[in-house]
Write a structure and sequence with these properties.
The complex is a heterodimer of chains A (234) and B (295).
Chain A lengths: L1 E10 L2 E11 L4 E6 L5 H9 L6 E6 L2 E2 L5 H7 L1 E4 L11 H8 L6 H14 L1 H5 L10 H13 L5 E5 L7 H16 L3 E6 L2 H7 L2 E6 L2 E7 H6 L1 H7 L3
Parallel strand pairs in A: 3-8, 3-9, 6-7, 7-8
Antiparallel strand pairs in A: 1-2, 1-4, 4-5, 9-10
Helix pairs in contact in A: 3-6
Chain B lengths: L2 H33 L6 H18 L4 H24 L7 H23 L4 E2 L8 E4 L2 E4 H23 L1 H11 L1 H6 L4 H27 L1 E2 L5 H14 L4 H21 L5 H15 L14
Antiparallel strand pairs in B: 1-4, 2-3
Helix pairs in contact in B: 1-5, 1-8, 1-9, 1-10, 2-3, 2-4, 2-8, 2-9, 3-8, 5-6, 5-8, 6-8, 9-10, 9-11, 10-11
The complex binds adenosine-5'-triphosphate and magnesium ion.
Chain lengths: 234, 295
């Protein structure tokens, strides 16, 4: 479904991604783990078109999308929940969700997906006319996910959905991610919480200072001594 | 006339003048909201709007209302062109470069206009002279009624567009966080064009009505109201739409009261005294939150 081939991404003189290749198959949850500054967000931002690779290609559903504008890439079926949630704090919950469906014109489909989002996140329904900035951190994460789902993406990119959340809430979020995947959305998940990420993912990539160093089956990686030492705290 | 009558009469004058400031200030604040640019050419857009209205009325012999509409459309397109040609190429340039460019655009519009329409002031045809409302001894004349009516109508439309329509939501989203709006599928360039179009059209309406109110227009007429509307936008809280309206009205009323009760030579000083006071007391303006600059 998604195939990244040897991309190099720069911030001015900073070489942030040094020849990364990865792929995601339809129906999978793939996770990208790595330390702070490894280049995880940069990878997702490049897929979404907020950054463009200097060299290399990004193929999505057989089409090269490298170099397309961000607002066009979401139309191809890729939606992102950005790091730090980035909800529109001064707009209501409902308006945030409306914006998630910005690219769509099928009124009934949007209504249906809105119902699904409220079904998945009942707290958002209770707070739909509230300003998004007044939500708690966990609720904001739900809103950011709901907003991304409103475009009815084929591929959902999640950038550290567990950031800053209490352990109980993290569990909830991950079970929702699994559920979203089971209802037909492919997921590329960036996480610092490698333990949780590996427990829900099919496959994983480990990113270190702009390079992919390890890749493989998520279950196997979670048993690997090397990974345990570096990312799983022991 | 006793004191209270004179006071209310000045209030009426002030609200009329303030409506004009508010219409111009809305453009300042919308454009600032979305690209963080103080568009110093905005007062000159208003001047061009006044001339387009003038020529529509004198050459095409049409009434004030269709003239306002025509001027809004043409000036709206001019706003889009200015943004596309002058500001868009500088989207990733340092803010100071864009600001200097805005000053350049301002001079360009002023002196190009002088070339085409000559620097001599033009006399705006008298309109709506016969119409007026009397409330006791107070008089609201036809021009003032037009200004109030048109301003209220335009603000109602603007509120609807910004609050309820898809493009309005896209505009608010892009003002708040352009990048994330792009992730939603919002084409930020298109939203910016739209914002310039609306802001310029509002200024054009103000320009035509000022021509009608003061009977005289000239190519440098935009400078002072441009600065005043900027003060109004800052007073209300730059980037905040209701702030621009309230700021404009307060400024207009204060100016009218100062020229009515003290001396009209002080009215410009009053406006800038307000700016200094706002910057000292609450730099974020009446409606502004004390947030730090967004990164
Ligand atoms: N806007 C930017 N300008 C310059 N350098 C940047 C910018 N954004 C990221 N970088 C650099 O690129 C590298 C990768 O950053 P990135 O944000 O992708 O890391 P990350 O893996 O997502 O880290 P974290 O887990 O902390 O979110 C870092 O060295 C970072 O300093
Ligand atoms: Mg990151």
């Amino acid at each position: 479904m998604l195939k990244i081939n040897d991309i190099n991404v720069y911030y001015g003189a900073i070489h942030a991604l040094k020849g990364i290749s990865l792929f995601v198959n339809e129906g999978e949850i793939v996770t990208l783990i790595g330390a702070n500054g490894a280049g995880k967000s940069t990878t997702l931002r490049t897929i979404s078109g907020l950054l463009s690779p200097k060299t290399g290609s990004i193929e999505f559903m057989g089409k090269n999308i490298a170099g397309l504008k961000a607002h066009d890439i979401v139309r191809e079926g890729i939606s992102q929940v950005p790091e730090g949630r980035r909800i529109f704090a001064e707009m209501t919950v409902q308006e945030n969700l409306d914006l998630g469906a910005f690219i769509r014109t099928d009124k009934e489909g949007i209504e249906e997906d809105l119902k699904n989002v409220f079904g998945r996140f009942p707290r958002l329904l209770e707070r739909k006319d509230q300003l998004a900035g007044t939500l708690s951190g966990g609720e904001q994460q739900m809103l950011a996910m709901g907003r991304a789902l409103m475009s009815r993406p084929k591929l959902l990119l999640l950038d550290e959905p567990s950031m800053g959340l209490a352990p109980l809430f993290i569990r909830e979020i991950f079970s929702i991610i699994k559920d979203i995947n089971e209802t037909g959305t492919t997921v590329l998940l960036v996480e610092q919480n490698a333990n949780m990420a590996l427990s829900v993912a099919n496959r994983a990539y480990v990113l270190e200072t702009g390079r992919i160093t390890v890749t493989g089956d998520a279950k196997e990686l979670s048993k690997s001594e090397e990974i345990k030492k570096a990312y799983l705290g022991g | 006339m006793d004191f209270s009558q004179q006071f209310f009469q000045q209030m009426i004058n002030g609200i009329s003048l303030g409506s004009i400031y508010a219409l111009i200030a809305l453009g300042y604040t919308m454009i600032y909201g979305i690209i963080k640019l103080i568009n110093f050419a905005h007062g000159d857009i208003y001047m061009v709007g006044a001339y387009i209205g003038f020529f529509a009325i004198t050459q095409a012999q049409i009434h004030i209302f269709p003239a306002i509409l025509i001027s809004m459309v043409v000036t709206g397109i001019l706003g889009i062109l200015v943004e596309r040609l002058a500001y868009k190429p500088l989207r990733h340039a340092p803010r100071i470069s864009v600001l200097i460019t805005a000053i350049g655009v301002s001079f360009f519009l002023e002196y190009t206009s002088m070339y085409f329409v000559s620097p001599t002031p033009r006399t705006f045809p008298a309109m709506l002279g016969g119409v007026s409302i009397h409330v006791g001894e107070l008089v609201i004349n036809g021009q003032q009624l037009t200004i109030l009516g048109v301003t209220i109508l335009l603000m109602a439309i603007l509120t609807y567009v910004v609050q309820k329509t898809k493009i309005g939501k896209a505009m608010r989203a892009a003002s708040f966080d352009t990048e994330t709006a792009e992730l939603m599928g919002v084409n930020a360039d298109r939203v910016i064009s739209f914002t310039f179009c609306i802001g310029s059209a509002l200024a054009a309406a103000a320009g035509v009505m000022v021509g009608m109110y003061y009977n005289s227009i000239d190519p440098l007429m935009g400078i002072m109201p441009g600065l005043k509307a900027f003060v109004a936008a800052v007073l209300g809280g730059i980037g905040i739409l209701p702030g621009a309206v309230v700021g404009g009205l307060i400024l207009g009323i204060i100016e009218a009261l100062v020229s009515g009760f003290i001396s009209s030579t002080f009215r410009d000083a009053a406006a800038f005294a307000i700016l200094i006071l706002v910057l000292l007391i609450k730099p974020s303006g009446i409606f502004g939150k004390n947030t730090r600059e967004k990164v």
